[in-house]
Structures are given as C-alpha cells and as structure tokens.
Amino acid sequence: MSRNTILPMQKLVVHAAILIFALLPLVSSTQKHTKKIIHECSDHKVLELSPKLSFQIILHGFLLWSSMGFLMPIAILVMRMSNRQQCGRRLKLIFYTHASLQILSVILVITATTLSVINFENFFDNTHQRIGLALYVAIWLPIVAGIFRPDKGSKRRGAWFCFHWLTGITVTLLGIVNIYTGLQAYHMKTMKSTSVWNWLFSAEVAVIAFIYLLQEKWHYIKQSGVTVGNDSVRPTDQETSPTNEKNELSSMPSPEPC
C-alpha cells in the first residue's frame, strides 16, 4: 500500500475518533434523560395517593408551613419590637418569646423532615428537596448563634449581630420559597390544583412584609404626631409660652412603670 493511500486513511481514522468522542456526551446525556423520564414516571406511579400517603404529605406540608412560613417570620417581627425599647422587663419578654418561637419552629422542622425520610422517596432530584436539605442544615445556624451570643459591649457583638440577622433572614426567605416549590411539586406529582393555597400563602406573606416595613417607620410615625381617631397638634401650630409649658407638663400623666 502506497504512502499516498495511508495518509488519507489515517486522517479518516482520526476524524472518526474525534466524532465518536464528540458524540459520547450526547449519548450519555440522552441515557440520563431517558433514565430521568423513567424515574419520574415510576415516581408518578408511586404517588398515586392512598389515603395514608395523602395524609402524610399534607401533614408534612402543614408542619413546614407552620415552622418556615409562620413561626419564623413572626419570631423576626417580635424581635424587631425590641428596637428603641428601654424597659428591661419588656426586653426580656420579647427575647424569650423570640427564642421560644424559634425553638418550636426547629422542632416542627425536625418532625417534618423525619416524616419525609421515613415515608417518602428522597432522590434530591428536584428543587424542593434540594432546598429542603440545605434548609435543614442552615436552620441550626441562628439557633447556635443565639446560644453563643456575646455580651453587650463586647467587640464581637457587632459581627455576631450581623451573622445572626443575616442567617435568620436568609433561612426565613428560603423557607418561604421552599413552600412555593413544595406546592408546585405536589401539583406536579398529583395533578391536583394548589392555586388556592398559593393565593392564601401569598396574602400571608404580603401581610408579614407590610408589618415588617411598617415597624421600620413606626417610630417616625409616632414622632410625627399621627394618632388614630384624634387630631394631634404639632408644636408649630400654636405659640408656646413658659406658662403654657408649665401647665402642659403638670397635666401630663406620669410614665407607667415597666
């Protein structure tokens, strides 16, 4: 065989090898996609819901809504009530209420996770399960940070506060997102409508967000002289004199003890 014939054959073999290696990822991805379709079909067959399995899924969702979608946001709103609060007794009450709500929320998350591990198939092949796994790890960070908080006035107090606040807000937001993904996953698995629950939960989130923003401006609203049901008078609306000031001070009620 002449050299002129060997060179084109070598080029043909090289090109064929390159083509085969180029097609391997496509073949692999096609096989994975086929396996995923088969896997999803088998999952759909498994979730032809029996009354027992239906109750377990609803209970799992209710527990996670109670913890991530209700108790955690309420705990944040309660703790924000301590802003500009001077009474030591009220500060303690706010702190213990916040801590109790957080601990109860973690207990409910543990219960819901245990229920999921025992009764459901967890392949972590969808967004809801992956976020749920990350949340189960992250939910402990605010609790641990709260236990090991530095004393007031410590140099580490500022860094601790930023970490505790950031992890708490992040876990709460991810929990809210995961409730939506859970409703979507339930709809995809059972083909049952979840639009009513989506609307109700969205309304709750909107109310919580409104209260959160209102708390930020509530002190300013009170200082601006805005009252409910009464027309307040600002200091610039009338001329003041030393006599009037004395009369006003004498007529003011004494502050209530904490």
Automatic annotation (TrEMBL):
Task: Give a yes or no for keyword RNA-binding in this entry.
Answer: no
Q: Which InterPro entries match?
A: CYB561D1/2, Cyt_b561/ferric_Rdtase_TM
Which GO terms fall under molecular function for this chain's record?
Answer: heme binding; metal ion binding; transmembrane monodehydroascorbate reductase activity
Q: Which cofactor does it need?
A: heme b
Which segment of the chain is annotated as a signal peptide? 1-29
Where would I find the Cytochrome b561 domain in this sequence?
20-222
What keyword terms does UniProt attach to this protein? Electron transport, Heme, Iron, Membrane, Metal-binding, Signal, Transmembrane, Transmembrane helix, Transport
Kindly give the membrane topology term recorded for this protein: Multi-pass membrane protein
Against SMART domains, the record matches this protein to: B561
Question: Would you tell me the Gene Ontology cellular component terms?
Answer: membrane
Residue numbers spanned by region Disordered:
231-258
* Matching Gene3D superfamilies: 1.20.120.1770
Q: Where are the transmembrane segments?
A: 53-78, 99-118, 130-148, 160-181, 196-214
Its subcellular locations are: Membrane
- Alphabetized Pfam families for the sequence: Cytochrom_B561
Under what name is this protein listed? Cytochrome b561 domain-containing protein
